[in-house]
Amino acid sequence: xxxxxxxxxxxxxxxxxxxxxxxxxxxxxxxxxxxxxxxxxxxxxxxxxxxxxxxxxxxxxxxxxxxxxxxxxxxxxxxxxxxxxxxxxxxxxxxxxxxxxxxxxxxxxxxxxxxxxxxxxxxxxxxxxxxxxxxxxxxxxxxxxxxxxxxxxxxxxxxxxxxxxxxxxxxxxxx
Length: 175
Hints:
7-stranded mixed sheet; alpha+beta; single chain
């Protein structure tokens, strides 16, 4: 539950500038992503699933967003997605990330996703804690997996398995 009066809604293309601004705020922290610049909308759109694209609105202003990316183009990974959750600097600490992540989990399950994963810098303890509170578990640490601003960075890998989506093997055999 958020302390602000926030609605979680489907992201619209017209939300892109606000979403991009929040993404840039995350990039500026140096602990949210390996990316150093936000893409244009066509690139962002191509790199995210068509389902489970959400925004948090407070008084009609977008204050956060969440979306899923495919982890692989291989058919066997069709039900596995990577999570992105970003909250505007002005709205952090208000429970918006939790509301977005819980809604993203619900939307993902409604769309046949059985595993969600997140790669989070170890320094981003708030994001790791948020994911753990929403049912993710740490499955490992990927050491020196990527370079950001001249420094090699580790990533904590977390995952969440759905308890409601059909058994992945059953899903694949019927597809």
